[in-house]
Amino acid sequence: MIHVEQDKCDLCGTCVGVCPVDCITMSEKMLTVDNELCIDCDHCVKICPVYALESRDEE
Amino acid sequence: MKNEYDVIVVGAGPAGSTAARHAALGGASVLMLEKDRDIGTPVRCAEGVGEDGLEKFVDIRPEWISARITKVSLTAPSGKTVNANVGKAVGFILDRKRFDFDLATLAAEAGALVKTRHNVTGLIVEDDYVRGVKVVTPEGPKEIRAKVVIGADGVESRVGRWAGLVTVTKMKDMESAVQATVSNIDIDSECIQFYLSSFWAPGGYLWIFPKGKGIANIGLGVAGDYKGDKKAIDFLNDFLKSHFPDGSIQTLIAGGVPVAKTLKRFTANGLMLVGDAARMVDPVTGGGIVSGMHAGKLAGIQAAKAVETGDFSESFFQAYVKAWDKAGGKNHERLYNIKESIYKFTDDDLNYIADKVLDVKPEKRSIAKIFSIALWRKPALLLDVAKLFANY
Which chain A residues have a beta carbon less than 8 Å from that of B204? Predict the structure, then answer.
């Protein structure tokens, strides 16, 4: 599952542009990942310029 | 705000504002929605633009210009710097905050209604036609109907996806970028500088774009398929430490630059995409302001025509697609191929090219000359470049 570090996130939306399943939602203030839809491809983790997304094992 | 408009534009960047202005000038009732609090902020852009490109779409105002650029320098991995002779002015570094703000004002003056803090979260789709948007406003969620929706929602675009278009960008075609606006630095305020090196920006480049005396946008993009452990922010921090240790960082932004082909399909029934949302950014330079405004103008005009004729089908919007192809869409594909070739240059190739260029007398170091030397090193580039110029 993908965890968002809101403090690090700049809300640039780059992750949204590469997410193959459209599971990332961005508002003016917050980025959220729908982990039900997420397929764990980690594209968002890799593309993030600032370490705001982390891949974690299911809790 | 009414419950229905002829045209709704999602996103108030240069592409959206230009689309809204031209749709309104064509007689349509237009609503432009921006998710952020302010038009023009946060700036996610290096702010460089060519003068002749920009003036085709708007009367340039002096207050938009942070710096006038007359020189270009390229630094090879070896550290050797080549100053290219570019003749007259190359272009500007814009103040995007004012620029974007004023473009939205021009749209409003043409008759469009502009709303900030309105985050579009979905589309109204009926009978296979886009018929409006779902939007979260400060007063709560609303549905607003429209005959045409124009998606100008940037690299993070979802409007196209909601209408069934394939907009996801491949990792290798997305640059992971960061930029700092740094003051108290010693730079030539008329010169844009590029560093080409896998050490500073693997699969991309590092830029220094002056914003005035002693201040510049310093940023870089790393290819999305870069396999190393460092992130764009690490490369930038390392560069700033080594080159400008006394610089003050006044803005630090992250962003993505799609260096992709334009989407195969960027229209649907009741919908057109423009600018970064349609992946219209120049894949070689990463520049997207002018191409976005161009597409915005074409889509705005076509939206007004659709309202006039009552035809909102995808086939009616093919006139926009064709106009975009004619205006630069075909070249875009060639630029993409050139990008693919350039990205295959090794640091050795780049050092070789720099050394050869430095053998040329400074007054003869034009961009064309540099390119011709690069071509000798990588003849595979030749065909694409020839096609590109043949089309101009």
Answer: none
In terms of DSSP H, where are the helices of B34-152?
Answer: 51-54, 96-109
Q: Which domains does chain B have, with CATH numbers?
A: 4-45+96-169+261-316 (3.50.50.60), 68-91+171-258 (3.30.9.10), 339-390 (no CATH)
Q: What is the pLDDT of residue B28?
A: 98
Contact A12 B169 (CB under 8 A): no
Categorize the per-residue pLDDT at B391 as very low, low, confident or very high, splitting at 50, 70 and 90: very low
What pTM did the predictor assign? 0.94
How many angstroms separate the CA atoms of B157 and B274, rounded? 10
> Looking at this protein, which amino acid is placed at residue B390?
A
Q: Name the percent of chain B lying above pLDDT 70.
A: 95
- Within 8 A by CB and 6+ apart from B115, the residues are B1, B31, B32, B33, B34, B137
Alpha-carbon distance of B369 to B110, in angstroms, equals 45
Q: Could you tell me which residues come within 8 angstroms of residue A45 by beta carbon, excluding any fewer than 6 positions away?
A: A2, A53, A54, A55
CA distances from B188 to B53, B193, B302, B327 (A): 24, 9, 43, 34
- Taking an 8 Å cut-off on Cβ atoms, the answer to whether B156 and A17 are in contact is yes
For B57, other C-beta atoms within 10 Å of its C-beta total 19
ipTM for this prediction: 0.96
